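Hypothesis: this fold can be encoded by more than one sequence.
Test: take the structure tokens below, design a sequence, compare later.
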């Protein structure tokens, strides 16, 4: 467990020094309005630092498209793991989370890799 904690600390330091600003927008579904047919949602924003890069062309498949982006963030910087229902805001552009991959060491989460689509 000491190695996992050291890796968490290292990931947090690297993303805070080298990463750019991003906002994880956690979305919670609210009540259903029968008159409008819309489900209300509430959002909670968390500011993080993350490393943003373009998805490699070789990674394009039926899920990942050309033009998607990858954001790597430290687990220590988040109150909870993001899900595909949540969103990410980078430089004012709202991105949908397509996939979340968590990197682990000894069953301890270190980083989250988010595939984003604007």
């Amino acid at each position: 467990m000491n190695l996992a904690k050291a890796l968490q600390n290292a990931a947090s330091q690297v993303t805070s020094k080298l990463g750019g600003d991003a906002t994880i927008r956690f979305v919670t579904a609210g009540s259903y309005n029968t008159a409008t047919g819309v489900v209300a949602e509430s959002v909670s924003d968390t500011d993080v630092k993350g490393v943003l890069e373009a998805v490699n062309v070789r990674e394009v498949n039926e899920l990942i498209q050309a033009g998607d982006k990858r954001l790597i963030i430290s687990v220590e910087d988040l109150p909870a793991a993001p899900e595909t229902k949540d969103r990410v805001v980078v430089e004012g552009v709202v991105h949908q989370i397509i996939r979340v991959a968590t990197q682990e060491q000894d069953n301890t989460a270190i980083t989250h890799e988010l595939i984003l689509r604007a």
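The chain is about 15% helix and 55% strand. The longest strand covers residues 38-54.
Hypothesis status: open.
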